[in-house]
Prior knowledge:
With about 500 residues, this protein is an alpha/beta fold. It contains 16 helices and twelve strands.
Amino acid sequence: xxxxxxxxxxxxxxxxxxxxxxxxxxxxxxxxxxxxxxxxxxxxxxxxxxxxxxxxxxxxxxxxxxxxxxxxxxxxxxxxxxxxxxxxxxxxxxxxxxxxxxxxxxxxxxxxxxxxxxxxxxxxxxxxxxxxxxxxxxxxxxxxxxxxxxxxxxxxxxxxxxxxxxxxxxxxxxxxxxxxxxxxxxxxxxxxxxxxxxxxxxxxxxxxxxxxxxxxxxxxxxxxxxxxxxxxxxxxxxxxxxxxxxxxxxxxxxxxxxxxxxxxxxxxxxxxxxxxxxxxxxxxxxxxxxxxxxxxxxxxxxxxxxxxxxxxxxxxxxxxxxxxxxxxxxxxxxxxxxxxxxxxxxxxxxxxxxxxxxxxxxxxxxxxxxxxxxxxxxxxxxxxxxxxxxxxxxxxxxxxxxxxxxxxxxxxxxxxxxxxxxxxxxxxxxxxxxxxxxxxxxxxxxxxxxxxxxxxxxxxxxxxxxxxxxxxxxxxxxxxxxxxxxxxxxxxxxxxxxxx
Length: 500
């Protein structure tokens, strides 16, 4: 295709967001909103069932060198390639991963965030946004139980927040106990002996982050769990003593408040005591379980979280916020100095940060950063903590009823009840049958559920994160799963008889 070059006379500025294009902006946003409304009104099942090869074939027809003539054509293309096949997290039949339905105030905030396009790294790029973010960090820290000396920053997600927790744990230990500044001089030779203790059901980001930080996955010590798949504190203390005897250096414990596979909370109070006893950094990954901070009824499950040095919070999991909306919170704001770096063009050393605060001083992997805090601001100011907490209570109670229903059904095996809303179970048959159930339901688009392996065995998984999901919805999904399983067993036996 012959390359085309625009002359100065050909260049149009009608697509740039400025005072002269208000009408174009309104029309574009309105047209996009109409497609979202159609998605809500026309979606009857959580997924279209389209297979990757069929979808990819449509993408092969797209030519970026030939612009579309208008928004209608553009939105029709996006509808065909994306919206019609987008996963509908708002439907009860989506019960797979930690994707929550979102609240409307946060969606309204997204309109302002994307158009005004503030960057949260320095005051001169965000002004009021800086203080909104700080106010929400302070509020979250207060819910955790931290005092006035706490601080934090919004992040892209739980994995990034967990990395910050591990990074501070490593750097704090080296500086405090070895008088070695890792920020300036890199990992000390003894870093190969650093050990971080996590439960065997903790998030995989611990291993990835340890690798990225030069500690290697070998630095992560997996601690056995109890019958509810929560960290066993006796096994934890045994593991710490064993590593010390081997000449290794324990530096941190990462507890999980809401495991991805089971939705259960490690015994935070006892883990906090052990961390204090052995002078270890105590980080709590509450990416999922942070919703308990909203609940007067179930917040007790987080007892002991205030003993931690740092906490990961994912508002986009349990505060019903659009992706992304997360935070990393520390008990002692001075610990954030371990990651501060000054750039003359952005946050010079001589700047008075009481006069001109800069959130970039607290961030490790993001300079330019969206004003995601505004979504949570809209939500809390319009809905309040109590309304969000009521959603959390409903989810927990629905999950418990569902657990009892699965447990009492002779055709299912339930592995564990959940503190939050994740239920791991299987149709009583061979692993291959459960694999078939998941695959068939996915490509039918009828029900989207997750799966996992426990002790090498394949299990199905419900992740209940929608307060609109009722026990009747669960009952109907279990009925479909059983029918699918029985059908596959009968068909398999018939095929085996034909082969004999």
